[in-house]
Specification:
The protein has about 200 residues and is of the alpha/beta class. It has a single domain, classed as P-loop containing nucleotide triphosphate hydrolases (Rossmann fold, 3-Layer(aba) Sandwich), CATH 3.40.50. The protein is about 60% helix and about 10% strand. The chain has 8 helices and 5 strands; from the N terminus they run βαβααβααβααβα.
Length: about 200
């Protein structure tokens, strides 16, 4: 079984991955923390390196999915391949940091790649308002995240909401963490697991 968790910065993807892994006995799969060889170049010259950066992310995400499918294990994955394209690459394009030619080329590669893959058995979208995201970002205290603006988070939220409404590759469960704050209460985490049980027919 492959469960994938999507959501904006600070929405609680890693926390939910940890909790579901413990609750169900699934194997957690996290974002690759190894050094990205394009990241420094990208921050020095974003329009020049945006395409290269996104292709590198896409390649890494593809390898992860193939590893998940070949593992024979029940996996819960922190972040999805879809977010790379429909949230972050699209945002770079709209900010004029990726050319139209490069963006179309990237999408062609992405769409061909994902057409060959099986979607997750369940995709969980963690939806959160900007005040909640900012609170969580401040709480975890990652220095490089503290300068993220509310406007940027709001723009990403708009993209996440639009994408989640058009996702048709498989089952999707939207969890509004403004209403079900599993990050802070066990009762709300229990409610989230009950929703997952229903989607996956777990008794």
């Amino acid at each position: 079984m492959h469960i994938a968790i999507a959501g904006n910065i600070g929405s609680g993807k890693t926390t939910l991955t940890d909790n579901l892994a413990k609750h169900y006995g699934w194997t957690p799969n996290y974002e690759d923390a190894s050094e990205n060889p394009y990241l420094n170049d990208f921050y020095d010259d974003m329009p020049r390196w945006a395409f290269n950066l996104q292709v590198y992310f896409l390649h890494g995400r593809l390898r992860k999915i193939l590893d998940i499918k070949n593992s024979g294990k029940d996996i819960v994955q922190d972040r999805t391949i879809y977010e790379d394209a429909y949230i972050f690459a699209e945002n770079l394009y709209e900010m004029n940091l990726m050319s139209e030619r490069d963006f179309k080329n990237y999408l062609d590669i992405f769409e061909f790649t994902t057409s060959l893959l099986e979607p997750p058995d369940l995709l969980i979208y963690l939806k959160a308002g900007v005040p909640t995201l900012l609170k969580q970002i401040k709480k975890r205290g990652r220095q490089y995240e503290l300068s993220i603006s509310p406007d940027y988070l709001n723009k990403l939220n708009e993209k996440y909401d639009a994408w989640s409404k058009t996702y048709t590759s498989g089952k999707i469960l939207t969890v509004d963490i403004d209403e079900l704050n599993f990050l802070n209460t066990q009762e709300d985490l229990y409610k989230v697991t009950k929703l997952i049980d229903k989607e996956l027919n777990i008794k």
